[in-house]
Design goal:
Structural class: alpha+beta
CATH class of the largest domain: Mainly Alpha
Strand content: 15-25%
Shape: globular
Helix content: 10-25%
Number of helices: 5
CATH topology of the largest domain: Helicase, Ruva Protein, domain 3
Number of domains: 2
Radius of gyration: 20 Å
Length: 257
Amino acid sequence: MPEGDTLRQAEARLTPILEGRVLTDAWFRRLRGYAPRRGQRVEQVDAVGKHLLVHFDRNLSLDVHLGMSGWWSVTDSPPRDAPKLRIVLSTEAGHALCYAAPTIRTYVRDGSPTPVDHLGPDLSDDDVDLDIVLERSRARDQNRPLAELLLDQRVAAGVGNVFKSESLFLARLDPFTQVSDVSDDDLASVWRIAHAALVANRDRSLRKTTSEGLRDRTHVYDRYRLGCHRCGNAIDYDPAGSQAARSTYWCPTCQAP
């Protein structure tokens, strides 16, 4: 599932193919906005939260959100058309390909608001002002589950379902407690954990939130009915829309209200 770490890895793969280079070809499916064209220069590739931005000359930027199942790849060979292929950006260095992304749009950098202006601090950055994240946590709706707060990209960008469930477990917090009932210390703790986990996974080929001594790569995510690594009791699962807007995994013993 694409989260902030996934986008950082995509940025690292695409940068040597695109940044500072001239497009030799460009193809899009379901693009909203002006299409970048052959001959345009790529000025920068930038991951912001769950968005990948490709900035071109002539003040044009491409914004791609991978949604739940999109991905980027690079290849030296000319790509073949495929049902899920959405973007091909080619330079003399290779081809950047995007698959299954639900949001593909461009915008003009003319001083108007951009699609990422609303985002909170990016938790996959090395240096994040967590005081700002805490302030934003308190400025948003307090009458919702803690699990929903962590997914609010206006508070902090980069956390998805995996890091949400894992960070709440490590912080020993009940995912369904209302934000108003959570102390500032506990909020700060879970955001610190999420930040550390995202940064640690930027360079990993396989995401892992557990310690090196554990074979499992997650504590609770996708481990429904399996034993908790702390207490041995069964991990629980709540489907989307039951207690929170998105599905959640947690240990009902270690994360008791």
